[in-house]
Every structure is written in structure tokens, then in C-alpha cells.
Automatic annotation (TrEMBL), chain A:
Its EC number is 2.7.13.3. It catalyses: ATP + protein L-histidine = ADP + protein N-phospho-L-histidine. The keyword Lipoprotein does not apply. InterPro entries: GAF-like_dom_sf (IPR029016), HATPase_C_sf (IPR036890), HATPase_dom (IPR003594), His_kinase_dom (IPR005467), HisK_dim/P_dom (IPR003661), HisK_dim/P_sf (IPR036097), Histidine_kinase_KdpD (IPR052023), KdpD_sf (IPR038318). PROSITE patterns: HIS_KIN (PS50109). The keyword Repeat does not apply. Its main location: membrane. One of its GO terms (molecular function) is phosphorelay sensor kinase activity. It comes from Paracoccus lutimaris. It is a multi-pass membrane protein. Residues 17-26 have a biased composition (Basic and acidic residues). One of its GO terms (cellular component) is plasma membrane. Residues 17-37 are annotated as: Disordered. This is histidine kinase.
Automatic annotation (TrEMBL), chain B:
Residues 6-119 form the Response regulatory domain. GO terms for biological process: positive regulation of DNA-templated transcription. It comes from the Bacteria. Pfam families: Response_reg, Trans_reg_C. SMART domains: REC, Trans_reg_C. The lineage of its organism: Bacteria, Pseudomonadati, Pseudomonadota, Alphaproteobacteria, Rhodobacterales. It comes from Paracoccus lutimaris. GO terms for molecular function: cis-regulatory region sequence-specific DNA binding; identical protein binding; phosphorelay response regulator activity. Residues 127-226 bind DNA. SUPFAM superfamilies: CheY-like. Residues 127-226 form the OmpR/PhoB-type domain. PROSITE patterns: OMPR_PHOB, RESPONSE_REGULATORY. The modification 4-aspartylphosphate is found at residue 55. This is Two-component system KDP operon response regulator KdpE. Keywords: Cytoplasm, DNA-binding, Phosphoprotein, Transcription, Transcription regulation, Two-component regulatory system.
């Protein structure tokens, strides 16, 4: 199996987002370089190999020389052959060939007539020589192949380990910079030299991170990265002795939908030090680097997609709440208007036939609905004001007074409701009295509208906060509403809120925040909803 | 037979029920009320009202559903109360069989006029000849004349006029008119209808630019303007 396939399969199993984009380095760039079956067995001999072969050869030569009298000639030749095989197997093809030549030379010098010359008298000795060379070459070749397979297997295992680790870490990255840093760390491990990551910012590149720590990118590095960024293709490191960056830079596709090819890339750029061409493990390192780059790209695209999906979801949700708010607003405004217009036209057109108490009732309805309308308009103005971000006029306010006045107003608005005020003496706080009263009034209004039974308005100090609570005797808030209150959203009401609640709670939340505090929701001992406005007590008022 | 028509008011807003109650009683009707769709259907079965005033935004089911269920067993006139953001629902309600609509907020006069127009056919059989101002439409003889002068109408124009005038005072949706005059295959050919309405106005209206007989209900359909009868 091809190494690349292995990596790809690992990616497939580990990274479900592999469908997002094909990795251009894997597919569309230069044809894949296969592991060097043809070359590895011929790799240049190492010094240790040559020395080892020499030592072995000398040892055997001395041995054969000394035991010359005891051993038959063909045993000596077998000894030499064995040494050739050992050298070829242990040190590779070239050392094997060299040791074969050496062994023939030694054998010739010591054992063939005329002794101590390299002259070959008999033609059959030439055949011996040829057989030695053949045996050495074949063994060296086979051993080289074997070693190469072992190398490849080790490399593959190492690459897989790096990749699986990378996959896991990339999956955990929750933003582009994290993903890039993860990729960079693995790149550093693979390239075993300086690596550099640059992020695009306003159409230019900005260095994000470099390894090893303290590596300062040179101007040539930045230039090369910029070229890779602008052209959207890899900028390879220049060779030794040439000017230019020592790092190869690869632009990553930042956004999905940007295929490979020319044109400026919009994603980050990663650079790594050129791998020394004579490293024996260069193959798998290069391949693993490609996988790292591809994986990083996929991770970035997955993150971009996630981000876009999240933004889309937020937009849809805010549109939904806005639509719900608008619907409830239009209902809230239209109902009193309908009543007023209907009652007025009834009085005018049918007044003559209306009994006196009907006329009175209609007039009362008009009055009530006008007040209701006035309250909505007041709320609308406050929403507008809060949304426009007009500065709040903070003064020293007695929170207890604000609570009492909200209760008074609520009692006037709903004479039948039982509204109890249980307000302790409270320290002065910084607030805008009108806003605070309105927020409390809105909470009481919700309680009046959506629950029956007594409503308690309490004021107390809890820690460093003044806490004004409206406690009703209903069944508690729907979970979605409680969740919304705890959330950071201020733009609109959550789903599933009864009509008419559309404005009240967002206003309370907005006011509480504008005053530097917060709105919280809870449950009373009897199960009713507890809505609390919590405002900080300034140190000076203690 | 009751001597006063019984009107069922279906609205979840008590304030609306309150003023409608006073107004309808003063206008000579009896009223009963329902706060949601289920209650409305129960009241219709129990009280057998002569007409239903139905708010489209009910808490338990939407107005369309009430009409759909109602139309399964009765052709009781229904007047829909709608808000401007319920345009589609309103049209669907009308196509499902609601007789007319009044947009909120409304003056009581408008509602009472719609009420009378929708109640009328239940009391009188359809007239063969419609007279209005100088206009005479003889539905049996397929003749139209103004101030004694016969007007030339194509058969389709006459059918369209007949469909409108026979339902005087009530809104006719595009859908309904197209189906009545051109058949079910043409219910979406609204531009076609518009052309014919234009031709009719040219022939009938004293000032075709300011139609006084065939009134447009934007986005919904057309209404034959009918001079108000004196209230019962």
C-alpha cells in the first residue's frame, strides 16, 4: 500500500470534515513521489559501514592466513564469502561490492598461485571472483531492500503517529490561530528546523508564531511568505549558497470555496526549513509535512464553516426574535387602538341608542386603553433610547423610593391586583430613578398579566448589591425565558414568550445593564417566579 | 326565528369584546362571545348564531382553522378581524370561506356595514334585477343599462359584473372571482382579472379613474359598492 493512501485513510477516519475540500497538495500538485524502492538500496555507504567492513575483512584475512595450514582452501573461500555476505547485508550494496573486491584481493594475495600477487593465473579464479561479486551484489541489494522496507515501515508509523496526534489536537482547536499553532508545532517536529506561521490581516501577512522559540524571521523569509501568499502557491526554499529564504512557504486556503490555483490566497501561510536532501528519512518527513499542511487547511476550513454556520444561526435567531417582537409590538399597539377607535365611533354613531351605563363603560374602556397605549409608547421610547445607547443620567438614588413609586404606579394601573411592598431601608445607589422605576414597573406588570395571586416587591442588600425583587405566585418562568434572562442577549425576547411580554423583559434587562447591574431570574419557595434587578452599591454610600 | 340576529364575537382581547358588545347591542343585535377557537366552535354549535365576527389571532388555533372546521358543516357568515401584518392569513381566510374582513383598528360604522352586507342574503332571496343609481343589471336577461341606455358587455364581462353585483357590499377575492367566471383552472390569473375589471370600469363607471362602483381591496380582491340600506 502506498504511504499516501495510508495517511489519507487515517485522515478520513479521524477527521469527518475531510469532505470539506480536497487537499490540493495531495491531488492536484506534482504526481506523488513513491518511496524510493529503486534508490534506497544504493544509498551512499556510511563511514561506519566502510570501517566495519574493513575490520571484518582484515579479521577474516588474518584468521584465514593463520589457519591456512589447518583449513582446506575451500573453507577459506567460504569464510571470505560469508564475510562478503555479512558486509553486504549489514552495510549495503556498495560496501558489499567493495568488500567482495577486498575479499577477492585478499584471497588472491594469500591463497592463489602465484602468492602475494594479484595476478590471476587460472581462468577459473576469475569465475570465483565473478561469483563473489554476484553474491555480494545480490545480498547487498536484498538487504538494502529489506532495510528500506523496515525504514519505510518505521517512517510510516512515525508519520501516522504525528498525524493522529495532529488530528486530535486540530479537532480540539476552536479558532484559526490555535489550529495554526498546533500545525506549526508538528511542522517543527517534522522539519527539524525553523518554522514560521503568518496570518493574513487586512490583505497583508502578519507573523503569528515561529519555532524554535526565539527564531526571528529574516526579511527574505517574509518576502518569500508574501510571494506565496500573493500567488497562492508554494514558494520553495532556495538551495544553499543562493539568496532567498531558507524556508519553504505554503499558502493555506483560508475560506472554503477557494479552490487551488493562482490568485491570491486568503488563508495563513506556513513555512518550514528545507529538509536536508541527504537525510535518509526525508521521504516520510516530506510526506508527513504535506499531510500536516493539508490537515491544517482542512481544520481552518472546518473552523470557518463552523463560524459561518454559527453566525448564520445567530442571525436567523435574532431575525426570529425581531419578528416575534414586531408581531407582539403590533399586537400591543393595535389592540388598544382598536378598542379606542371602536368605542369612540360607537359613541358617536350609536350614542343615541346606547344606554347610559354602556356609554360610561365605553368611556372607561377608552380611558383604560389610552393609558395602556401610553405605557407601550413609554416602553417603546425606552427601548429606542436603550438601543440608541444614549447615556444614562446617573445620580444618587434611593432604590427603596424607586421601588415604592413603581408599586404605587402599579396599584393605580391595576387596582384589583394585590401588590405588596416589603422594602428594607436601602443604601443610596448610582442610578437613573425613572429607569429603575420603569424596570420594576415592567416586572410588576408582567406578574399582574401572567399570574394571579399576590405579588411581592422586595428590596434588600445582598453582599455588595442592592437587590430589588418582584415575586409572584404563579408557576414560575418557562425554562426558555429563564435561560434568555441568564444569557447575554439583549436584543429581543426569546421564543415562546406570551404576547405582550415582548417588550417588558428586554427593557428590564437593558435598564439593569445600563445602570451597571443585571437582571436575574429564580424561583420562590412556593414555586412562583422571582425576577430580581441587582445593582452594585458604590463604596461611598456605605 | 329570532327577531334580532345573534352575533358571536370571537376575540381573545376582553377590551374588544367589551366595546363590540355595547356597539352591537345598540345597533340592534344580540351578542355572545368566545375567547378562543375551541370555545367559538362550541358556541356556534350551541347558540347557532347568525354571524360570527372572528379575530384571526386567536391563542389556541388560528382563525383559518376555525373557518375550515366551521365550513365543513355550515355556511354561517363569518367576518374576519385582521391586522395589517396578517395579510396572507386574511386572504386565505377569505378563500376558505370567510365572507368579509375588517382591518384593525376600525370604526364601528365600517363593521356594521360589513355585518349588514353579510347578513342580507340570509333574509332576502337573490334579486333577478339589481338597480343602483341609473344602473340596471338584469341578471336573468343578461342585460345592463345605464339611464335607459343599454351597455354592450361581452359575456365574460357580464358574468364578472353579475358575480360582483350579486354580492354587493361584500369583498370578492381574486380567487373567488376567477373561479366563478373563468373556472378552477384560472384561479391564479389575477392580471387577466385586472384587465376585465378595467374594461368593466370603462363601461360602467361615470369616472373610470375614480371607481365608485367596483372598489379595489388591495391585494385581496374587489367589492361592489352598495348604497347603505337603512339599518334594521
Amino acid at each position: 500500500m502506498d504511504y499516501r493512501m495510508t495517511c489519507k485513510e487515517v485522515i478520513k477516519t479521524m477527521d469527518k470534515s475531510h469532505r470539506v475540500t480536497p487537499d490540493r497538495r495531495m491531488k492536484s500538485q506534482s504526481p506523488p513521489r513513491l518511496p524510493s524502492d529503486e534508490r534506497r538500496w544504493m544509498t551512499a555507504p556510511r563511514l561506519s559501514g566502510i570501517l566495519g567492513a574493513a575490520v571484518l575483512l582484515i579479521t577474516v584475512t588474518l584468521l584465514a592466513r593463520n589457519l591456512h595450514e589447518l583449513l582446506p582452501e575451500n573453507v577459506s573461500i567460504l569464510l571470505f564469502l560469508m564475510i562478503v555476505l555479512v558486509c553486504a547485508a549489514a552495510f549495503g550494496f556498495w560496501v558489499g561490492i567493495a568488500s567482495a573486491l577486498g575479499a577477492i584481493a585478499a584471497f588472491n594475495l594469500l591463497f592463489l598461485e602465484p602468492h602475494f600477487t594479484l595476478h590471476v593465473a587460472k581462468p577459473q579464479d576469475l569465475i570465483t571472483l565473478a561469483l563473489f561479486l554476484l553474491a555480494a551484489g545480490l545480498t547487498g541489494f536484498l538487504a538494502g531492500r529489506l532495510r528500506e522496507q523496515v525504514d519505510a515501515a518505521n517512517g510510516r508509523a512515525a508519520a501516522l503517529e504525528v498525524i493522529s496526534q495532529l488530528s486530535a489536537e486540530l479537532a480540539g482547536a476552536d479558532n484559526a490561530e490555535d489550529a495554526i499553532r498546533v500545525a506549526l508545532r508538528h511542522l517543527h517536529g517534522l522539519a527539524q528546523g525553523p518554522v514560521l506561521a503568518l496570518m493574513p490581516q487586512d490583505g497583508n501577512l502578519r507573523p503569528l508564531a515561529a519555532l524554535p522559540a526565539g527564531y526571528v524571521p529574516e526579511a527574505s523569509d517574509l518576502d518569500a511568505a508574501d510571494i506565496a501568499f500573493r500567488r497562492g502557491r508554494a514558494e520553495l526554499a532556495s538551495a544553499k549558497g543562493w539568496s532567498g529564504s531558507r524556508l519553504s512557504f505554503y499558502p493555506l486556503a483560508g475560506e472554503t470555496g477557494r479552490g487551488p490555483g493562482p490568485g491570491p490566497a486568503r488563508g495563513p501561510v506556513l513555512g518550514h526549513a528545507r529538509l536536508s536532501p541527504d537525510r535518509s528519512d526525508r521521504e516520510w518527513r516530506e510526506q508527513a509535512i504535506e499531510v500536516v499542511l493539508g490537515q491544517a487547511e482542512q481544520a481552518l476550513q472546518r473552523l470557518a464553516l463552523t463560524e459561518r454556520a454559527e453566525a448564520e444561526r445567530r442571525r436567523a435567531a435574532s431575525e426570529e426574535t425581531r419578528a416575534a417582537l414586531l408581531a407582539s409590538l403590533s399586537h400591543d399597539l393595535r389592540t388598544p387602538l382598536s378598542t379606542i377607535l371602536g368605542a369612540v365611533t360607537t359613541l358617536r354613531e350609536l350614542g343615541a341608542t346606547l344606554p347610559a351605563d354602556s356609554q360610561t363603560d365605553l368611556l372607561e374602556a377608552i380611558e383604560e386603553e389610552s393609558q395602556r397605549l401610553a405605557r407601550y409608547v413609554e416602553k417603546l421610547l425606552q427601548v429606542t433610547r436603550l438601543q440608541a445607547g444614549i447615556a444614562v443620567q446617573m445620580t444618587w438614588v434611593d432604590a427603596g423610593d424607586a421601588a415604592q413609586s413603581a408599586v404605587q404606579r402599579a396599584r393605580r394601573a391595576w387596582p384589583k391586583a394585590r401588590i405588596l411592598a416589603e422594602v428594607e431601608p436601602l443604601p443610596m445607589i448610582r442610578a437613573e430613578a425613572g429607569l429603575l422605576e420603569q424596570a420594576l414597573f415592567n416586572l410588576v406588570e408582567n406578574a399582574v398579566k401572567y399570574t394571579s395571586g399576590p405579588i411581592r416587591v422586595t428590596g434588600a442588600v445582598e453582599g455588595a448589591e442592592v437587590v430589588l425583587k418582584v415575586i409572584d405566585s404563579g408557576k414560575g418562568l418557562p425554562p426558555s425565558l429563564a435561560e434568555w434572562i441568564a444569557s447575554d442577549e439583549t436584543t429581543g425576547a426569546p421564543q415562546g414568550v406570551p404576547q405582550g411580554m415582548g417588550l417588558g423583559l428586554p427593557i428590564c434587562k437593558g435598564i439593569a445593564r445600563a445602570l451597571g447591574g443585571r437582571l436575574t431570574a429564580g424561583r420562590s419557595a412556593s414555586g412562583g417566579a422571582v425576577l430580581a434587578i441587582r445593582l452594585p452599591v458604590p463604596p461611598a454610600s456605605e | 326565528m329570532r327577531d334580532r340576529d345573534l352575533i358571536l364575537i370571537v376575540d381573545d382581547e376582553p377590551q374588544i369584546q367589551r366595546f363590540l358588545g355595547h356597539a352591537l347591542v345598540a345597533a340592534g343585535y344580540d351578542t355572545c362571545t368566545a375567547g378562543n377557537g375551541a370555545e367559538a366552535l362550541a358556541q356556534i354549535a350551541a347558540q347557532e348564531p347568525d354571524l360570527v365576527i372572528l379575530d384571526l389571532g386567536l391563542p389556541d388555533m388560528n382563525g383559518k382553522e376555525v373557518i375550515e372546521r366551521l365550513r365543513l358543516r355550515s355556511d354561517l357568515p363569518v367576518i374576519v378581524l385582521s391586522a395589517h401584518d396578517q395579510e396572507m392569513e386574511k386572504i386565505m381566510a377569505l378563500d376558505l370561506g370567510a365572507n368579509d374582513f375588517v382591518a384593525k383598528p376600525f370604526g364601528i360604522g365600517e363593521l356594521l356595514a360589513r355585518l349588514r352586507a353579510s347578513l342580507r342574503p340570509r333574509r332576502a332571496t337573490r334579486p333577478e334585477v339589481i338597480r343602483q343609481g341609473g344602473l340596471v343589471i338584469d341578471l336573468g336577461a343578461h342585460l345592463v343599462s345605464r339611464d335607459g341606455e343599454t351597455l354592450r358587455l361581452t359575456p365574460k364581462e357580464f358574468d364578472l359584473l353579475a358575480a360582483l353585483a350579486a354580492n354587493g357590499g361584500r369583498v370578492m377575492t381574486h380567487h373567488k372571482l376567477l373561479q366563478l367566471v373563468w373556472g378552477p383552472a384560472h384561479v391564479d390569473d389575477v392580471p387577466y382579472l385586472r384587465v376585465f375589471i378595467g374594461q368593466l370600469r370603462q363601461k360602467l363607471e361615470p369616472d373610470p379613474a375614480k371607481p365608485a362602483l367596483i372598489l379595489t381591496e388591495p391585494g385581496v380582491g374587489y367589492r361592489w359598492a352598495q348604497p347603505e340600506e337603512s339599518p334594521p
